[in-house]
Task: inverse folding
């Protein structure tokens, strides 16, 4: 059975910057939970950031890959550099994925850690940029297929295809 890494906030954990969750009650997620497939992760908390915390964005219209390459920074709304915590959280998420043999992740879209198709541009004006967040970029670079909560049907089909093609793993 494929295990799936899922953003903790999507599972109802109040770990977001504002101490809220983004619970996803979609049938696919609920089935995965019931089947014991889900491994929860919050890279920002794993990287040492508190709850609550100031909102953060990747500065300079850059993406997570640039942060990992130390060519861009993650800054919070007060101007503090929180890049080290985001990088540490991404490393922890990858270690968790590897420890569980995870090949699929569903992460919170738009997050500077977890966004898979967009994040925000670092101006705190709600302007999107088409780049993955730090953790999403780290996982993608390691071969983990990352989906957002808006792509659950596609993620579920991908998981089923993996299971059809590969022998069962312990």
Result:
């Amino acid at each position: 059975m494929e295990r799936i890494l899922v953003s903790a906030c999507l599972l109802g954990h109040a770990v977001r910057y504002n101490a809220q969750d983004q619970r996803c009650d979609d049938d696919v997620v609920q089935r995965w939970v019931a089947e014991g497939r889900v491994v929860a992760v919050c890279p920002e908390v794993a990287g040492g950031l508190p709850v609550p915390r100031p909102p953060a964005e990747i500065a300079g219209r850059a993406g997570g890959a640039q942060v990992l390459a130390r060519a861009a920074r993650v800054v919070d709304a007060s101007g503090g550099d929180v890049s080290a915590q985001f990088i540490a959280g991404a490393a922890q998420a990858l270690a968790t994925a590897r420890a569980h043999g995870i090949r699929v992740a569903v992460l919170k879209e738009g997050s500077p850690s977890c966004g898979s198709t967009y994040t925000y541009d670092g101006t705190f004006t709600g302007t999107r940029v088409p780049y993955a967040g730090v953790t999403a970029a780290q996982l993608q670079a390691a071969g983990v297929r990352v989906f957002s909560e808006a792509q659950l049907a596609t993620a579920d089909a991908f998981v089923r295809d993996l299971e059809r093609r590969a022998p069962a793993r312990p």
User: Anything to note?
Assistant: Helices lie at 27-35, 43-46, 64-68, 83-99, 134-141, 152-165. Strands lie at 4-7, 38-41, 56-58, 74-76, 104-107, 119-120, 128-129, 145-148. The mean pLDDT is 97. The chain has six helices and eight strands.
